[in-house]
User: What shape does this take?
Amino acid sequence: MPHAEAEVSLSAISGNVARLKSATPAEVMAVVKADGYGHGLLECARASLAGGASWLGVALIEEALALRAAGLDAPTLAWLWSPSESEAVRAAVRAGVDLSVGGSWSLAAVTAAARETGKPARIHLKIDTGLSRNGCYVDDWPELLAAVAQARAAGEVEPVGVWSHFAFADAPGHPVIARQLAAFRDALGVAGRHGITPQVRHIANSAAALTLPEAHFDLVRPGVAVVGLSPIPGQGFGLTPAMTLRAELAQVKRVRAGEGVSYGHTHTTARATTLALVPLGYADGIPRHAGNRGPVMINGARFTVSGRVCMDQFVVDIGDHQAAPGDSVVLFGPGNDGEPTAQDWADAADTIHYEIVTRLGPRVPRVYRDQGEPCHRR
Ligand SMILES: *Cc1c(COP(=O)(O)O)cnc(C)c1O
Assistant: This one.
């Protein structure tokens, strides 16, 4: 083992997708943006397709092109791009990558790319149903639809999808959910009156895929559930967290009572004790916010980070427990063997588990395990 590793179970990812697929007649778009939520873009995509996903979703065009370059040719949607990316847009159109369009500048960009490449752009029209993030504002929707109908008549675009995104899917029953669903249905109705009847209508993220069947339409877009993290803390949904983050203790030493530990001495040893050194720090994505709070497991027992998390390392006061340099420390995993979970780290750092796994840095090698054995490293 290297000094630290994030072990990723590919069978967990495939199993999670199969679980999501079994809950809906809709197709599954596995969202693998942000390096597969820190689990590895290509590995996560391949395992998702093996589990029954038929679409892939990413934020950036470059992520979609990386999938294509690796030979993954499943329908793929990229939804976040900017006006200066005309070259990437052309590459996307050439590679048959679907692009989200939410307004006039993005429609102009895809039609220009279509003219330049001689290939119609496959587009998903995004309606902002109440997140007020990206997508077309409802007042501007009819004008966008009219322009899309014109571009389609000119052979420049193929309107493949109409889509949106929830603000409160992780709070089942929240009134904004129903308002957004109604706005989505209205937007689909207006699209139909403009002659635009997409192949796929989609609005459901992981939380909606697992709790809101009426939001499934033709396609669901789970991300966090694919890697096995529950979109609604406290409810497991039969998902298996795919990542285990562990390191090797780099030093273990016995010290006296009254020693200040780590920068600023925010922890002081209460009595003679053993300090264990973990070679992971905030440069690796361990939240500095989790000083004196983050949980770990060493040789079967749970402890808490002692003092501040440093750039490359942190210290754990393990009392009279036995440990030696080279022993394994588990920061988080599925939780089946008593180890902390990514949710526990999120609680310790006042954030969400999405951030805990996606922020893991490039110094932490990802090691892939399928049927219980490591299969390759990256
Ligand atoms: C990230 C993202 C998803 C996946 O969300 P999860 O909560 O991880 O399931 C789906 N759709 C869009 C537009 C996203 O940005």
Remarks:
- Residues 31, 33, 79, 165, 205-206, 221-225, 231 surround pyridoxal-5'-phosphate (CB under 6 Å).
- Residues 1 and 232 are 33 Å apart (CA to CA).
- The longest helix spans residues 175-193.
- The mean pLDDT is 97.
